[in-house]
Amino acid sequence: MSGWMKFSNDDSSYYKPTKEEEVAWPPKYWKFILQTKEEPKDEVAFVDPRRLGRIRLLDCAADAIRQNTPLKENGPDPVIDKDILTEEWLVAKMRSKKVPVKALLLDQANISGVGNWVGDEVLYHAKIHPEQYSNTLTDAQLSQLHTSLRHICTIAVETLADSTKFPEDWLMKYRWGKGKKDQNKLPNGEKIVYIKVGGRTSAVVPSVQKKTGPVAGDVKEENDEESDADEDGNVTGDGHKEAKPKSAKKGRGKQKKEAPKAKAEEKSEEGDAAENGNETGDEPIEEKPKSAKKGRPAEKRKAADGDIASESMKKEPATKKAKGVTKAEDKGLTPDRRRSSRNSAKG
Questions:
Q1: What confidence score (pLDDT) does residue 342 get?
Q2: Peptide bond between residue 284 and the one before it cis (omega within 30 degrees of 0)
Q3: What are the residue ranges in the chain where pLDDT is below 70?
Q4: What is the separation of C-alpha 77 from the centre of its chain, rounded to a whole number of angstroms?
Q5: Residue 175, class by beta-carbon neighbours within 10 Å (0-12 exposed, 13-18 middle, 19+ buried)?
Q6: CB-based burial of residue 157 (10 Å sphere; 0-12 exposed, 13-18 middle, 19+ buried)?
């Protein structure tokens, strides 16, 4: 819930915090304060920690407020509009839409005044799973839903939503233990589970609220099974699958994929035959001369190697510099002078 009206001279909050807070005015998270003219003086503060609430000022008589926007766009109220929200009206509304039944109840454009915990309480008493599609409910289920809707909303209004005055068999008394050990159950031991429906956390008792019709997950699984049957073959009346002929396009595609493979095998066989010689009948295998591209002929390679060797022989081996001879002097000396200079250096 988001938003609350607090009065400076009266405690109107029935939802008490777990920890005691200091009484302060203006209260924490207040968004605006309205002052009254009459005596005794009073102030009204709108508090909204989550900032999801809205306040709208309408210039109209109090009795006509529901005939003005935004309230006139809402659906009938289960307590005020009992002459409109009849069982026949509810049956027609439920079967006109294919949505989870709880999502339909929470939509204020369909029915006014049903919040999250009220919707869970109504469905628990009606023994309806919140995920089940609204248009799959039986006449008996819709009749019980109508009874539970009026009963729960009437008691909530008469007690001013004071949970201490709610009956002990209500789910609302035990649904707040989500995530706490040994608290997600009713006094009789029945387990409470929590799921998301219509974007809201929903408390469900699976042993009481059983699925009697398709929900979103079940419909998806059925569609998947049908598509698998269409791909594998048509199911005949006796339950056997009839083989579905493969389309020509798929066959051509397979042949095209196999063709390159066959060509590659042929090329490899031809290449092996070319390297090893012609293998035909009893004829001797003729050795095919190697291509010039793969390498130089043996004679040319030998000649080239001989040229390289002769050139290397022509070159004189490098000699060490004589001690005491500078680099510049070494360059200008002839071989005979280098030898004499080295001998003199040794002497």
A1: 66
A2: no
A3: 1-2, 12-22, 216-347
A4: 37
A5: buried
A6: middle
